[in-house]
Specification:
DNA-binding transcription factor activity; two-stranded antiparallel ribbon; Arc Repressor Mutant, subunit A; 6 helices; WH_DNA-bd_sf; WH-like_DNA-bd_sf; Transcriptional regulator, BadM/Rrf2 family; 126 residues
Length: 126
């Protein structure tokens, strides 16, 4: 299993925002410079985090991004789902899909991992 590069950046963006706990808006260019990535790529990731209600954006000259949720609420799973979505990691392609014991075992494993990621708050790691 492998997460996308977007998830890597999303986790680091939110961690940065939590670590520095700024009340001011964080603008795109300084954040892109800090993460050493292009502003256009970062903008797409920030949009996903906004849609997931993890951060909010403010337009305008003094605009930028701030946390929408409190840092104590944001789990690893919240950020991962913002970029990866909620599609199961494994889907049985055999005809016995509903009765597939492999599918059931994989679902159980994924549920255990999701429970761990849901309970692990990003601020605890930083």
């Amino acid at each position: 299993m492998k997460y996308t590069k977007a998830t890597n950046y999303a986790l680091h963006i939110v961690a940065y925002m939590i670590k520095y706990d700024k009340r001011d808006n964080l603008s795109l260019l300084p954040l892109a410079n800090h993460l050493n990535t292009s502003p256009s790529y970062l903008s797409k990731i920030l949009t996903q985090l906004v849609k997931a209600n993890i951060i909010k954006s403010t337009p305008g000259v003094n605009g930028g991004y701030v946390l929408q949720k409190s840092k104590e609420e944001i789990s690893l799973l919240d950020v991962i789902k913002a970029t990866e979505g909620s599609i199961p990691m494994f889907t049985c392609e055999m005809k016995e899909n509903h009765a597939c014991k492999i599918q059931k075992a994989m679902e159980e494993a994924e549920n255990m991992m999701e429970t761990y990621l849901k309970n692990k708050k990003l601020f605890e790691i930083i």
